[in-house]
Structure formats: C-alpha cells, structure tokens
Design brief:
173 residues, alpha/beta, six-stranded parallel sheet, 7 helices
Length: 173
C-alpha cells in the first residue's frame, strides 16, 4: 500500500481525490501505522470503538454508532456495525462525493468492519466514487463461523465495490 500511494504522490497525481480509510479495530490500526510513516496521505478512520480512534487528529476520525454501542466495540455483532454506519450514510456521501478513489482497509470476521464495509461500498457507488477494499480474513483457528461471516460481507461488498482484495491471515504462518 505504502509503495503504491507514494508512487501516486511522486507522479503528481492529486492526492486530494484519494482517501485511505481504516475500518474497525484492525483496519484503523493498520492505517494509523501507515499514517505515522507518511502524514501527507489523506486518511479517515471509521470505528464504533472510540479507543481505537484515539491518538489521531479529530479531522481524521469518523466515530460511528455512539447511540448504538456507547463508544464501545460491536462485540462481534455484525448487525450493530451495520446499524452504526447506516445512521451516518448522508455524512459519508458528502465526504465521498469529492473523492475519485477510496482505498478501504479492514479485517473481517468481527462486528464493526464486517457490518460497516458493505455500507461503505454502497455509498461509494451511489456517489460514483471508485472503491478498492483490502480485507484480511480470519485465521482458521478462529472458527468456521467467523469465516462464513467474512464471506457473507465480501458477497455484499462485491455488488457495489470496484475491487475486493482478500488477504487470508493463514498466509502469515
């Protein structure tokens, strides 16, 4: 990711038309680590857990679901993640409408990212913004249910996303 984004910057592409988005705990963590290395890249962190959004400037965070989760995680409940983001769809439309490309990073299998990402795909399609999803899949030892939840989210994303790149955690072994 870092190489590709730097290449875009080096070729003088307009990075204001690009947005790197971290969703859920693992996605926010990955994007925060990336941002520490290169603060010139526009980012947005989306999560229900207010703790995962800490240590980043307020204009780069998009907390969702405060009325649903009270600033806590979804606890693996995909429906809570979906409900949290649906209430913010109009705000997302205004953020996405002036972007050309969204690169959305997340880890599937939990509640927040698994519920949020299909909605992000739909909203980006509604405003004609291209979206690329980079998603990590659960380890096999996390159980078949987490993998099925992830696969369901990918199916829902694909109907609206321009591309979904899957990174199985099993390959990390």
């Amino acid at each position: 990711i870092l190489y590709g984004v730097r290449k875009m910057r080096d070729t003088k592409l307009n990075l204001k038309s690009f947005l790197l988005i971290g969703v859920g705990g693992s996605g926010c963590s990955a994007v925060k680590n990336f941002y520490k290395k290169d603060k010139s890249i526009p980012i947005l962190l989306i999560d229900t857990d207010s703790e995962s959004l800490a240590s980043v400037e307020n204009d780069k965070v998009f907390p969702v679901g405060s009325s649903v989760t009270n600033g806590l995680s979804c606890g693996g409940d995909v429906e809570l993640g979906r409900q949290s983001i649906e209430k913010e769809a109009s705000k997302l439309r205004s953020i996405f409408s002036n972007k050309d490309i969204l690169l959305i990073v997340c880890g599937l299998g939990g509640g927040a990212a698994t519920g949020i990402t299909p909605v992000l795909a739909r909203v980006s399609r509604e405003v004609n913004t291209q979206s690329l999803f980079l998603v990590s899949l659960p380890f096999a030892f996390e159980g078949k249910q987490r993998m099925e939840i992830s696969e369901d989210a990918i199916r829902r994303m694909r109907s609206n996303a321009d591309a979904v790149v899957q990174l199985p955690n099993e390959r990390l072994k």
